[in-house]
From TrEMBL:
One Pfam family of this chain: DEDD_Tnp_IS110
A biological-process GO annotation: DNA transposition
Record protein name field: Transposase IS110-like N-terminal domain-containing protein
Positions of the Transposase IS110-like N-terminal domain: 21-166
InterPro entries reported for this sequence: Transp_IS110-like_N, Transpos_IS110
Signal peptide region: none
Gene Ontology MF, one: transposase activity
Length: 299
C-alpha cells in the first residue's frame, strides 16, 4: 500500500506497478521519472531529462532498460509523443494518457514535478490509457486522414471554381449534374481557350444524354469571363487536377498497406452502407482489427 494525496486528502492505494516511469514530453526534451517501490511500500524516485533527438530517445530507452523499467506512462502532447512512442514501443509497455486525466494539482509546476505526478498516478493504475493500435494500423490511419484532407482540399477548389462560374454568369451547374464531369470540363477547357468567344460547336464536347440539351448548354455558357477570372479558373483547375493525381498516388500506398486485411475488409463490406474499399479501410484504420481492445460493443 502507498499514500497518494489527491486534493489535499491522503489516500491509501495499492501499488500496481512497482517499477514504472512517468514522462513529461515536450518539443525538444523529455523529462522521465522512474518510481521504484520496495517490498515495504516505500517509493524512491529518479528523474532525468533527455533530448528528443533520436540519439537522446535511444539513451532514454537504455536508461529505462538498465533500471528494469518497462512500464511507461506519458501524455499525448500534440504530435511530440509519437517519436518517443516509436522508439520505446518494442521494449516497453506504454500507456498513453489524455492530458486532462493526468493534470497536476494546483501549485507551482515544473517538468520534474509533472513527470513525478504521472509516475505516482500510474504506479497505482489510476491512468486511463488511450486506445493505441499496432504500428501498421497507425500508419494506415495517418494515410487515411491525409486522404481525407486532400478530399477536403478538392472540395474547396470545386467550390471556388463554381463561385468563379457564378460571378461570370456561366450556369453550367443548372444543366449538368456535375460541373467536374467530362462534358462540363471539356466545355470549360474550350471556354478558357478564348473566354470572349462562346460561339464554338458544343456537340463534339458533350457525351450521351447531354446532346439533347445543347440549346440549354448554349444559354448556360453565354456569360462574361473577365481575364482575371479566366486566370483564376485555370489555377483552380490545375490545382484540382494535381490534387487528384496526388490523391491517386496516396491511395495506391493505402491499398498496399491494407493488403494484409483483405478478409476483414470483405466482412466489413457486407454491412449496409459500406461498399467502398476506402470506407472499410477507414474503419479499420481507426479501430484496428482486435476488438478485444474495447471493453464493450458501445466503445
Amino acid at each position: 500500500m502507498n499514500l497518494l494525496i489527491l486534493k489535499g486528502v491522503p489516500m491509501s492505494l495499492k501499488i500496481v506497478y512497482k517499477i514504472c516511469c512517468g514522462m513529461d514530453v515536450h518539443k525538444t526534451f523529455v523529462v522521465a521519472c522512474i518510481a521504484s517501490t520496495n517490498d515495504i511500500g516505500v517509493t524512491s524516485y529518479e528523474s532525468h531529462r533527455f533530448s528528443t533527438y533520436t540519439s537522446g530517445l535511444k539513451t532514454l530507452l537504455q536508461w529505462l532498460l538498465n533500471r528494469n523499467c518497462k512500464d511507461v506512462c506519458m501524455e499525448s502532447t500534440g504530435k511530440y509523443w509519437i517519436p518517443v512512442y516509436n522508439i520505446l514501443e518494442n521494449d516497453c509497455s506504454i500507456v498513453l494518457a489524455h492530458p486532462k486525466y493526468v493534470k497536476a494539482i494546483r501549485g507551482k509546476k515544473t517538468d520534474k514535478k509533472d513527470a513525478k505526478w504521472i509516475a505516482d498516478l500510474f504506479k497505482h493504475d489510476l491512468v486511463a490509457g488511450s486506445f493505441m493500435p499496432p504500428a501498421d494500423i497507425r500508419q494506415l490511419r495517418d494515410l487515411m486522414r491525409y486522404r481525407f484532407k486532400l478530399t477536403c482540399f478538392q472540395s474547396s477548389e470545386k467550390n471556388r471554381l463554381q463561385n468563379c462560374l457564378t460571378v461570370s454568369n456561366i450556369q453550367l451547374g443548372n444543366v449538368v449534374s456535375d460541373t467536374f464531369g467530362k462534358s462540363a470540363q471539356a466545355i470549360l477547357d474550350k471556354l478558357l481557350e478564348n473566354p470572349a468567344d462562346t460561339s464554338f460547336d458544343l456537340e463534339p464536347l458533350v457525351y450521351k444524354s447531354l446532346k439533347k440539351k445543347l440549346p440549354q448548354l448554349r444559354d448556360a455558357i453565354d456569360g462574361y469571363i473577365t481575364p482575371e477570372q479566366a486566370g483564376k479558373l485555370k489555377v483552380i483547375k490545375s490545382h484540382y487536377e494535381n490534387l487528384e493525381s496526388r490523391k491517386a498516388e496516396l491511395e495506391e500506398l493505402i491499398l498496399a498497406l491494407a493488403a494484409p486485411y483483405q478478409q476483414e475488409l470483405a466482412i466489413l463490406q457486407t454491412a449496409p452502407g459500406i461498399r467502398s474499399d476506402f470506407t472499410a479501410i477507414g474503419i479499420i484504420s481507426e479501430i484496428g482489427t482486435n476488438m478485444e481492445a474495447f471493453p464493450s460493443a458501445k466503445h
